[in-house]
Design goal:
With 71 residues, the protein is α+β, with helices and mostly antiparallel strands. The chain has two helices and two strands.
Length: 71
């Protein structure tokens, strides 16, 4: 239920996209099952990292979680 906006392309690398809605991805901050999605997917576990595959990674895990929740 807690979400945070993640910049797909980090604004520190491209300041022009900081407020571009197409550069946003919402990721959870809930820590459900010990995973904070924003840190895990957006930053590969460390906020100093950049995950260039964040969109596809988040989609894949979203599918996996939906299947698991429907089981």
């Amino acid at each position: 239920k807690a979400v945070e906006v993640h910049h797909i392309e980090m604004f520190s690398q491209n300041p022009a996209r900081e407020l571009d809605p197409s550069n946003f991805l919402t990721l959870c901050e809930s820590g459900k099952r010990g995973v904070v999605c924003h840190r895990f997917f957006g930053h590969k576990g460390n906020y100093q990292n950049i995950n260039t595959d964040v969109v596809s990674d988040a989609k894949e895990w979203n599918k996996k979680l939906k299947v698991e929740n429907n089981s």
